[in-house]
Amino acid sequence: MWRVSPMRSRSESEMPHLWTWSWKLPTLRILLAEDVAMVRGALVALIELEPDLKVVAAVENGADIVPTARACQPDVAIIDIDLPGQIGRAHV
Fold first, then answer.
1. CB distance 92 to 79 below 8 Å
2. Under 8 Å CB-to-CB from 90, ≥6 apart: which residues?
């Protein structure tokens, strides 16, 4: 016959500290291209609320996308498709 024995309560010092084992994801570097200053600022603020996201550059026209991307080396570019200067679709 099987018997179930009650678990002995452990003190905090005896418990494994699982919360010390955490995975740190690499920070994702973002280039943001948006012509409306208020929208650009709001997007930067929202993106930077996430601990693993970082806006490395924010540009306001299509002509600045490529030079800024070469200088900053972002992982991802978020581009408004209707940018002034050059068409945003040409850079995608």
1. yes
2. 62
Strand pairing partners for 32?
58, 78
Q: What single DSSP character describes residue 16?
A: -
pLDDT at residue 17, rounded to an integer:
53
Q: Which residue from 35, 25, 41, 40 is spatially nearest to 75, judged by alpha carbons?
A: 25
User: Domains in the chain, please, with CATH?
Assistant: 27-79 (3.40.50.2300)
DSSP 16-75: --GGG----PPPEEEEEE-S-HHHHHHHHHHHTTSTTEEEEEEESSGGGHHHHHHHH--S
Q: What is the pTM of this model?
A: 0.68
What was the pLDDT predicted at 87? 58
Distance CA 73, CA 84 (A): 22
